[in-house]
Specification:
Length: 144
């Protein structure tokens, strides 16, 4: 009986991991709003690859560029992460309230990563600080 239970558990786990495919897709298969974000804020020709990460309860698109920048979109094509490594995230992708807060509190810093994490937005600055914002873009915490 234990062997049967273990075999069933293993089969379920294998099935779940097989759904997370991360398979490459053409740029044109991205949702339209994701394509627009890329063409307006990044050089499309510098795309290294586009991938579809599909799991049972979620779908995400990942875009990586030759220079190491990375974007992630949810299944609807909404931006959920932009990582520009050592460069500022394009200002058009950051809410005005957040830009104002960063400029006034940290005038010599810039946002190099902007992401949605556990229902909160996080802005990683080039000075090593991580600012945490709620869904209304109000600062609720700082992590160093």
């Amino acid at each position: 009986m234990k062997k049967l239970f273990l075999m069933i558990c293993m089969a379920v786990m294998i099935g779940l991991t097989a759904c997370a495919d991360g398979r490459p897709i053409p740029f044109e298969q991205l949702p339209a709003n994701a394509q627009t974000i890329i063409t307006q804020n990044f050089v499309k020709e510098n795309i290294l690859f586009v991938a579809l990460d599909s799991e049972i309860f979620s779908t995400e698109y990942e875009v990586k560029f030759n220079d190491g920048k990375e974007l992630k979109f949810n299944g609807s094509g909404e931006l959920i992460k932009v990582d520009c490594k050592y460069e500022p995230v394009p200002e058009a992708l950051i809410p005005a309230e957040v830009l104002t807060q960063v400029r006034s509190s940290y005038p010599n810093a810039f946002i190099k990563e902007w992401k949605l994490d556990d229902g909160r937005w996080k802005a990683e600055l080039n000075n090593g600080l991580e600012l945490i914002f709620n869904k209304r873009y109000q600062l609720v915490g700082i992590d160093d």
